[in-house]
Recover the amino acids of this structure.
């Protein structure tokens, strides 16, 4: 049975450290285990449906934290960032694994630590997690991480006394990693898809493009041993936390996936170029033209994404004065004093208004400074103009151009001491601009070098000649075919908007996107199952049984639905009904190990 971990929110549904020179991860006492890359057979044919098919995966070298992140370590992050500290359920803090943190909290910890250390730190992908749990290149086939004896390596429902324990008290696996089975579930980087293994890439898989549940792995103090198997997959909503979910972290030499967008402004001495690429989950981009409404406005072109009916967010823009805009997403930022300003409430979007009413970087920055906008909390705006000036607006902070060019990716320049160490794209772009003759060809080479494939693929790239008001547009990953847009000529055709793809011939990359990275509708069976487990958590057994019966009626061929209903009867104490439904589940899936273990357990209790 899939143990969709639950929370009790049923009602909605029916200190900074003193300055030191050592890296922050050393200050936190994080110990790393080096994992030698290699190939392994991921998944299991003897577990649940979502563990199949067994498939070959190849990973490159990485490091993983020896222990789960503790309360002590997480609280340092909270103190440094002003974040609220999570509750410990009165079990104790210190060296116990941190709990009651959601996926977003864990990801924020990784981002903060990356910025503090200049290292690439993130949550493990599901493949990295399983490879480490199964002892990497040593290719262990142990049922649990480090042993077939669950009590030797794990805290679980039958030995934990229903609480977490300080990390490292059980035996480690052969690589020296502790608690990968039991103690707390661990957040992974991936979205969850029960069928992902069918289409998983062979090299460095990153998980599905989108979803509504994140992967958790390893089982916990709360779970029976069957949930602690190395291959068992589970999931949980990323915005919720629970008392049996924590995390550990991974460090890599370079980014496994260039997930940031790239932006730049530079001059070759005669022409000013600005450009960037746009990585996004969706592919439904539009281009639109807005002629000047009066003599005080500038005609503009925008490329962006629909956010709701009739409303669009402009990611890129250029106007007839030679002003360029590129919008970047960033971390949440506290705004000091800006809320006292009048809130922007124009007929156009903020970025459209900025571009149509201003000719220079200085004017654009000043215009934005007159208003408060919710967008300022996360948006960073890169501006360039025909004079070669450039600046970044980060909410209430402005970062001015310093040198011959300006580069921006998805981190806040004002908050990073050594930007060259934070992001591969930033470093690659900066080095290319420092080491090569500046030209249109160099701009295209930068975008081609830093384009992204896979999940958050580059949907389009633009280069703007701000001197002559020419925009070069490239679609998906293709830098051979280009649409050259003369802004003055295009504006003569009047106001219009249409899909960006209409500028280009049909592309192989779009076919790949449609087949491989399409969005999936939410799975009704999963949602019903999830609600049933919420009710079980509250010991509302009859209510849970009523909900889970809906699944068996709507999905009678799903062994997992029958298994979940059997679990509800088991927890209620109705063993006769539990046996009947476990047997039904096994009839549909003879390899259902959980049902077999439960039937064996019931039989032994009856002796």
């Amino acid at each position: 049975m899939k143990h969709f971990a639950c929370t009790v929110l049923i009602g909605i549904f029916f200190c900074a450290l003193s300055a030191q020179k050592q890296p922050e991860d050393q200050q936190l006492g994080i110990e790393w285990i080096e994992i030698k890359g290699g190939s392994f057979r991921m998944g299991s044919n003897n577990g649940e449906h979502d563990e199949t098919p067994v498939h070959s995966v190849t990973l490159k070298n990485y490091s993983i934290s020896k222990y789960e992140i503790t309360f002590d370590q997480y609280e340092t992050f909270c103190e440094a960032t002003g974040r609220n500290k999570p509750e410990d359920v009165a079990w104790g803090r210190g060296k116990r694994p941190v709990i009651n943190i959601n996926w977003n909290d864990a990801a924020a910890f990784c981002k903060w630590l990356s910025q503090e250390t200049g290292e690439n730190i993130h949550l493990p992908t599901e493949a990295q997690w399983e490879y480490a749990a199964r002892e990497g290149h040593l290719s262990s086939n142990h049922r649990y991480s480090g042993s077939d004896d669950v009590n030797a390596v794990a805290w679980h429902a039958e030995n934990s006394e229903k609480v977490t324990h300080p990390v490292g008290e059980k035996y480690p696996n052969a690589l020296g990693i502790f608690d990968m089975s039991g103690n707390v579930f661990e957040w992974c980087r991936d979205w969850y898809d029960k069928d992902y293994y069918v289409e998983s890439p062979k090299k460095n898989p990153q998980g599905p493009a989108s979803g509504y549940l994140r992967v958790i792995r390893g089982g916990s103090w709360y779970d029976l041993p069957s949930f602690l198997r190395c291959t068992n997959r589970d999931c949980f909503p990323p915005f919720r936390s629970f008392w049996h979910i924590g995390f550990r972290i991974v460090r890599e030499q370079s980014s496994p996936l260039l997930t940031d967008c790239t932006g730049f402004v530079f001059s070759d001495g005669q022409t000013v170029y600005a450009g960037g690429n746009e990585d996004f989950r969706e592919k439904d981009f539009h281009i639109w033209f807005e002629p000047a409404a009066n003599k005080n406005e500038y005609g503009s072109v925008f490329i962006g994404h629909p956010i709701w009916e009739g409303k669009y967010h402009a990611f890129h823009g250029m106007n007839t004065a030679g002003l360029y805009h590129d919008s970047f997403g960033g971390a949440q930022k506290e705004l000091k004093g800006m809320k006292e300003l009048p809130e922007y409430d124009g007929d156009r979007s903020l970025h459209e208004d900025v571009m149509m009413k201003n000719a220079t970087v200085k004017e654009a920055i000043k215009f934005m400074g007159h208003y408060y906008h919710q967008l300022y909390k996360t948006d960073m705006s890169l501006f360039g103009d025909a004079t070669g000036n450039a600046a970044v607006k980060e909410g209430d902070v402005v970062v001015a151009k310093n040198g011959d060019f300006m580069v921006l990716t998805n981190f806040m320049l004002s908050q990073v001491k050594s930007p060259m160490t934070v992001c591969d794209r930033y470093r690659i772009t900066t080095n290319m601009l420092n080491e090569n003759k500046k030209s249109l060809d160099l701009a295209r080479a930068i975008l081609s070098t830093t384009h992204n494939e896979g999940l958050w693929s580059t949907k389009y790239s633009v280069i703007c000649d701000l001197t002559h008001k020419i925009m070069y547009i490239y679609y998906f990953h293709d830098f051979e075919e280009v649409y050259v847009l003369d802004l003055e000529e295009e504006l003569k055709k009047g106001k219009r908007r249409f899909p960006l793809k209409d500028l280009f011939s049909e592309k192989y990359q779009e076919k790949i996107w449609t087949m491989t990275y399409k969005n999936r509708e939410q799975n009704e069976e999963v949602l019903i199952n999830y609600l049933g487990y919420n009710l079980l958590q509250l010991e509302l057994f009859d209510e849970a049984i009523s909900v889970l019966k809906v699944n068996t009626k709507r999905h009678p061929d799903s062994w997992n639905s029958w298994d979940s209903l059997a679990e509800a009867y088991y927890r209620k104490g109705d063993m006769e009904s539990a046996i009947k439904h476990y047997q039904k589940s096994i009839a549909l899936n003879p390899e259902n190990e959980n049902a077999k273990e439960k039937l064996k357990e019931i039989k032994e209790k009856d002796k």
About this structure: The chain has 17 helices and 24 strands. The CA atoms of residues 307 and 313 lie 7 Å apart. Residues 1-22, 254-259, 512-522 have pLDDT under 50 and may be disordered. The radius of gyration is 27 Å.
